[in-house]
Design goal:
Rossmann fold; single chain; seven-stranded antiparallel sheet; alpha+beta; 460 residues
């Protein structure tokens, strides 16, 4: 029988269709920080159809495009009205000082004219711009976060993190369980709350730190208990699982759940019902579970410390949150967001250029939590003045020491092996590998340093 969508004799092709929406890389300019207005937030402009960018002072941040030229004005009194010019010639971008009073600093060095490498940091007056040569063309061509409502908890300029958020939004409306993995401080609970909010489920989100419950009380706290079920049970208790009925149960650090409780929780997920401690009759549940961990659960399964059948139940969709060092373009977003949160009584808070540069250069190994603590301390120490480098933690200012040897996660191990193979195939040429992966050279250097890969041994 011939299907309704084919004609007799037609053969359906097994070849993958062309991805019309596949993002092509393009040059971008990022406004990272206005030191005198850090709460304004960053901005990004795609240069795919642009050959020239004029940067200068204006009465407000605004842009105008005409004849393949992008004009960007910033209300920075330290910038000249016509400060710098970025120009593309045969695919290569250069920066030229237009006779500005305070000059152009390229990666900290004063220049009159120079070629721009991927990741180059430009300081014009008290404003920092970043040039990126090959960023996937995802999202709108112009993205500007200035304004009081322009930045949310999960606002991003990172293509990789936006992909995670897109997947989260796609799975939010259903009941499929979601497993969030990532280092501590990467925002797993914030993402869990966002998924719950987007799900429109009528019940609450109930967060539970699996590792913070006393071992002898885990079942009673999770499943609830009846009065008199054990010594000290003076009244009935609903428990976190039943409290999340109709909503979302967020189990943070699920890898810390004791093995004896894992079996009981597996039954709850399988049967969609729970029996409180001391009870005799199961109670039906409308349950949606989001679990999070910084551990490698598959390795724990192999070690026998985590049940494989429970992992199968939790791992409906896995979302991996990248560490901050792998989405460095979001550091300016988070600086603005956190300062708005921490400096409610200081809407005129400022940064010195040295402090801004230090914040942008740091790798933030402890992720968003470390950045928030650094800014909170700096605000306290700066009083009513601008935040300077002297107000930042010593760890932010000093050159990082060699990272202590640590066990890589399964994902990191696979990534290291793939990167090593590519470097070997390219004779240790980092620039060539960057082109193959469509990444900036500085990102490849970061990965090489992070994984301790000996590039010299791969050359020749």
């Amino acid at each position: 029988m011939v299907g309704p969508m084919t004609q007799k004799g037609d053969t359906l092709s097994l070849a993958e269709p062309t991805r019309e929406r596949e993002a092509r890389p393009a040059a971008h300019v990022f406004l990272e920080v206005e030191c005198d207005r850090p709460l304004a937030g960053p901005a990004r402009w795609r240069l795919g159809a642009i050959d020239r960018v004029r940067l200068g002072r204006g009465t407000a941040r605004r842009t105008e495009t005409a004849a393949r030229t992008l004009n960007i004005e910033v209300p920075d009194g330290w910038m000249s009205v016509e400060h710098a010019d970025l120009q593309q010639v045969e695919g290569r971008w250069t920066v030229r000082d237009l006779g500005s009073k305070n000059k152009v600093l390229l990666d900290g060095q004063q220049v009159d004219e120079a070629e721009l490498a991927d990741g180059a940091l430009l300081q014009l007056g008290h404003t920092f711009f970043r040039f990126r040569a090959d960023v996937p063309s995802v999202g709108p061509p112009v993205l500007d976060f200035q304004g009081p409502a322009g930045i949310g908890p999960l606002s991003t300029l990172s293509v990789s993190f936006q992909a995670v958020l897109d997947r989260a939004a796609a799975v939010a409306p259903g009941r499929v369980p979601v497993l969030l993995i990532g280092e501590s401080g990467t925002g797993k609970e914030v993402l869990a709350r966002t998924i719950h909010a987007q799900s429109k489920r009528p019940g609450p989100l109930v967060p539970v730190n699996s590792g913070a419950i006393p071992t002898n009380l885990v079942e009673a706290e999770l499943f609830g208990h009846k009065k008199g079920a054990f010594t000290g049970a003076a009244q009935d208790r609903l428990g976190w699982v039943r409290a999340s009925n109709g909503g979302t149960l967020f189990l943070d650090e699920i890898g810390d759940l004791p093995t004896n409780v894992q079996a009981a929780f597996l039954r709850v997920l399988q049967e969609a019902e729970v029996i409180p401690v001391g009870g005799h009759h199961p109670e039906s549940l409308d349950l949606r579970v989001i679990a999070a961990t910084h551990r490698d659960l598959k390795a724990m399964v192999r070690e026998g410390t985590f049940r494989h059948d429970l992992l199968a139940r939790l791992d409906g969709v896995t979302l991996e949150l990248p560490p901050l060092r792998e989405r460095a373009e979001d550091i300016p977003v988070l600086v603005a967001l956190l300062l708005r949160k921490l400096a409610l009584e200081r809407p005129d808070v400022k940064l010195t250029p040295a402090a801004a540069q230090a914040l942008l250069a740091h790798d933030w190994p402890l992720n968003i939590r470390e950045l928030e603590q650094a800014l909170a301390g700096a605000l306290a120490l700066s009083g009513t003045g601008a935040i300077d480098v002297t107000h930042l933690p010593r760890t932010v200012l000093e050159a990082p020491e060699p990272a202590p040897t640590r066990q890589l996660s399964a994902a990191e191990t696979r990534h290291r092996e793939e990167l090593t193979r590519l470097l070997e195939a390219q004779g240790g040429n980092i620039t060539a590998v960057a082109k193959v992966l469509g990444k900036g050279r500085t990102q490849i250097v970061r990965w090489v340093k992070r994984y301790g890969i000996d590039v010299k041994s791969l050359r020749g």
